[in-house]
Amino acid sequence: MRGHDESSKPVNPLESSSQINTNHDHDHRDDNDEASITIIDDNNDEAGLRRNYGREIHRVCLPPFVPTIKKLKHELFEIFFPDDPLSGFKNRTGWEKVGLGVQSVFHVFHWVPHYNFKLFRSDLIAGITISSLAIPQGINYAKLANLPPIVGLYSSFVPPLLYSILGCSRHLAVGPTSTASLVMGTMLNDMVSYANEPELHLRLAFTATFFAGLFQASLGLFRLGFILDFLSKATLIGFMAGVAILVSLQQLKGLLGITHFTNKMQLIPVLSSVFNSRKEWSGQIIIMGFCFLAFLLGAKQISSRRPKLFWVSAAAPLASVIFATVLVFALQTKFKHVPKIGRLPNGINPPSANLLYFHADHYLGLAIETGIVTGILALTEGIAVGRTFASMQSYHLDGNKEMMAIGAMNVAGSCCSCFVTTGSFSRSAVNYDAGAKTALSNTIMAAVVLVTLLFLMPLFHYTPDVTLAAIIITAVLGLINVKAIMNLWRLDKLDFFACSCSLFGVLFVSVQTGLAVAIGVSVFKVILHVTRPNTVILGNMPGTQIYQSLYRYKDTTRVSSFLILGIESPIYFLNSTYLQERILRWVRNEEERIQRENDLPLKCVILDITAVTAIDTSGLDLISELKSTLDKRSLQFVLVNPVASVMEKLHRSKIIDSFESNGLYLTVEEAVSDISSSWEPSP
């Protein structure tokens, strides 16, 4: 207990304030200060200081008057335009403003005027490198979304072209991703079986992509990107881990050679399907699959240990596809029972605007719901990846412009036989390591995919499904971040709880339910912090004018006859009742301590509201009721250092009038010294 330590003995406020203010008086005798402040006696309230028993006490001033319309305009500006996007248009001619407007929409015009052959060489190498990863991933993720494999290649052609024109990131590599693909396939398959109704499933996928892009672009256009902040990092860690586990288990169908497999996306049905289909397991496919899996994981390990060999893991998926295709083609009689991709059509993306589903029925509702969920996930991943590489290279990434770019490419993609795309972490990491300098690397990747679509599609006829399963498992295992989950447990138990809810919700209920529960837990955490804010009891650090938490700093001491409290949050209707009860409990505990230790009686309660950044009418009622309650108990109630907005509301509500001249101070030290001096007997 601190109560018996010498350092925690109460300090006589008269002695401590006299000692503290010795230096304080000297501070205000500097000639420079006399030009900026006026020293007046107690009868003059107009200036910023008054002198009491030789001590200088600063008045707490009201903020300058600002009209309500102007304040509302300022608050809305800070909500929607914190980056002040129009600042660059100031003091510009008409044509310069037009040029800046074009650049703000088509980001390509930012870097094209300064482009040179050296940058092109770097982008060319990076674009060819990521295309080796994009082609097999496009095929794999289309299968993950229960779509024809060719749709994955279509989605690696048109969206990257559009992003290279509209996008702000120099390193983001665009294409299908495992998370969005899985969620889309799962949500659509809950109502429409891709095996029984493939055409309807495909139409709903394109329609969901359209609404995903519309939602993403709307967030950027109306500058509502802060909505994505409800997806906390802890939530995403658990969500992606759960999705990765389910995806990996789903790929056991191809890795083990199972032909009859469940369409459900929960842990128990998937495991049951795996073990109930043991008779379908194929030793040939198992050996082949685990050999490719070992090769891919080994390549990934080499690249992680030696960053200069990044191309090993980047080229491994394409090398696996080529080797497996050649092997199955050369030994057709040996591998005739191995499931294969089959024939893929040559040619570029066919138009799909006529396939979008806009009939007002439950299928449209499913498409909208799927589009919003996958759109949020895709946008969160794309923005997070883009900001990661932007911070590594110290350039600014405009989140709202990125939302509009990603949304526009998905809307356009839905009309060109593409499904949801965004910035992929794996491809972007390879793009960065390969030395990409601008978004042109996406264009080069799209060009390679175009050549593949036009001339190389027959080569994929003999590609075995088991190879694609191994590639998918290798890709999604990186989403299971065990170290990050353990850090959550070590640093913040509520974050760990949100992560766990997301993880187990995905595994045992459904992907969308797991995400919804995790968001709910994150919001609950915010509400908990608002409704139960932290309050601390403050003490003086000997020999200084500093007041800090008694329980945090061991050398702080109580000031006799004073209870000094600090509130560390805004005061709203959600927490006003709790704060009133908590402050009165602090008073009751202090009085019990005084009686127990036979200390000087409590005379004054000081409330430091420096950290109270906002207050509403319920908070004002709290201040008024505390004042009334403490007055009835013959305890003086004092407020210290209200911020401008709080001070203005205290003044307008007339509550400040009840505190008189010695109820409001700028610092805790001035409050203690001034009030304690008023208790001194007159000379």
Automatic annotation (TrEMBL):
InterPro entries for the chain: SLC26A/SulP_dom, SLC26A/SulP_fam, STAS_dom, STAS_dom_sf
PROSITE patterns (alphabetical): STAS (PS50801)
Pfam families for the chain: STAS (PF01740), Sulfate_transp (PF00916)
Database matches in Gene3D superfamilies: STAS domain
Domain STAS: 552-675
The UniProt record lists the keyword Membrane: yes
Region Disordered, annotated ranges: 1-32
GO biological process, one term: transmembrane transport
Domain of life: Eukaryota
Membrane-traversing stretches: 200-222, 234-261, 281-297, 309-331, 403-426, 438-460, 466-484, 496-524
Location(s) in or outside the cell: Membrane
Keyword set includes Transport: yes
UniProt keywords, alphabetically: Membrane, Transmembrane, Transmembrane helix, Transport
Gene Ontology cellular-component annotations: membrane
Topology class, membrane: Multi-pass membrane protein
UniProt family annotation: Belongs to the SLC26A/SulP transporter (TC 2.A.53) family.
Protein's name in the database: Sulfate transporter
Species assigned in the record: Trema orientale (Charcoal tree)
